[in-house]
Write a structure and sequence with these properties.
Number of strands: 5
CATH topology: NADH Oxidase
Order of helices and strands: HHEHHHEHEHEEH
Low-confidence stretches: none
Mean pLDDT: 95
CATH class: Alpha Beta
Largest sheet: 5 strands, antiparallel
Number of domains: 1
CATH architecture: 3-Layer(aba) Sandwich
Radius of gyration: 18 Å
CATH superfamily: NADH Oxidase
Bound molecules: flavin mononucleotide
Shape: globular
């Protein structure tokens, strides 16, 4: 089957309108589209262009069911147990809003329904103490998210399953030195919009030559 025409959205528009998408339909994603998305992702950067990565595409309901339980545990521990407190908190420029909490909760409860999952995996990472290790894959991961958006597919970079990495490794048949760097559930969004993510103002987080030397934007 031919790959459907991607949305001709400009790069900058896509950068400004690709939030986490967590309400996803179970509608299948054609393999051709998965290939096109991953082919864009692997154009991303890695140290020395070593590309010590692998991309595990999961559609198997048994694997999903197992991992979804682990994810749910992580969700309950990190956020679910503070549900009332988070929902009652006033909105701020950072942290989860009420809306994003509810969306993240929805994903935690419906993760297995996302038709395609992708685990970005790094080799020689399992025992690495390098604090910048992730920089050799997260550029490519963001490319994956943006490429998915071009095909109308939403994604979220997630990590709440990660306390079970030791059990996940044999489940996915990963080499001993490999580490999953995230889990991206992909699907066609059923709720929400492609809209500008809420962030602290760029002037507040930009430092000119020295930390603390902020400027007004001209
Ligand atoms: C390292 C990392 C881990 C994340 N883990 C999760 C996760 O486990 N579950 C989830 O729903 N979102 C997860 N997120 C998504 C963030 O919550 C999201 O990027 C942030 O709230 C901004 O969302 P927005 O772009 O929609 O504004 C993660 C993001 C990053 C970068």
């Amino acid at each position: 089957m031919p790959v459907p025409e991607p949305d001709p959205v400009s790069i900058l528009e896509a950068l400004h309108s690709t939030p986490a998408r967590r309400y996803l339909s179970a509608e299948p994603i054609p393999d051709e589209v998965i290939w096109a998305i991953l082919d864009a992702a692997v154009r991303g950067p890695s140290g020395g262009n070593r590309q010590n990565w692998g991309w595990v595409v999961v559609t198997d309901p048994e694997i999903k069911g197992q991992v979804a339980g682990w994810y749910r545990e992580g969700w309950d521990r990190a956020y679910g147990s503070r549900r009332e407190q988070i929902l009652a908190a006033p909105p701020t420029a950072d942290g989860l809003t009420r809306q994003s909490f509810l969306a993240a909760e929805h994903l935690a409860l419906h993760l297995a329904e996302a038709p395609v999952w992708i685990f970005p995996v790094l080799r020689r990472a399992a025992d690495s103490g390098n604090p910048r290790l992730g920089s050799s894959i997260y550029g490519a991961v963001q490319q994956l998210i943006l490429a998915a958006r071009a095909y109308g597919i939403g994604a979220t970079l997630t990590t709440l399953y990660a306390a079970h990495e030791a059990e996940l490794r044999p489940l996915l048949g990963l080499p001993d030195d490999a580490l999953t760097m995230g889990l991206l559930p992909l699907g066609y969004p059923v709720r929400g919009r492609w809209s500008q993510p809420r962030r602290r103002p760029v002037e507040e987080v930009t430092h000119w030559n020295r930390w603390g030397a902020t400027r007004e934007r001209s």
